[in-house]
Amino acid sequence: MANPKHKTPKAKTGSRRSQWKLSLPAISECPRCRQPKMPHRVCPNCGYYKDLEVIKKEAKKAK
């Protein structure tokens, strides 16, 4: 089994690990209700996707 000939410097290890970071999720605006939503998904607020009602939402009752 092969063994390393030299010790890897901390700078080399750190520069290699520097790309392991999280990115923020993309958020778009629903064209119908103007609420934030994930792109290419049904709006959780109004239930529409591309001008089609996918999930039926009932109106909230006032007390």
From TrEMBL:
Keyword Zinc annotated: no
Annotated Gene Ontology cellular component terms: large ribosomal subunit
UniProt GO BP: translation
Keywords: Ribonucleoprotein, Ribosomal protein
Pfam families for the chain: Ribosomal_L32p
GO molecular function: structural constituent of ribosome
InterPro entries cross-referenced by the UniProt entry: Ribosomal_bL32, Ribosomal_bL32_bact, Ribosomal_zn-bd
Signal peptide limits: none
Similarity remark: Belongs to the bacterial ribosomal protein bL32 family.
NCBIfam families linked: rpmF_bact
Protein name in UniProt: Large ribosomal subunit protein bL32
Organism field: Tepidanaerobacter syntrophicus
This protein's encoding gene: rpmF
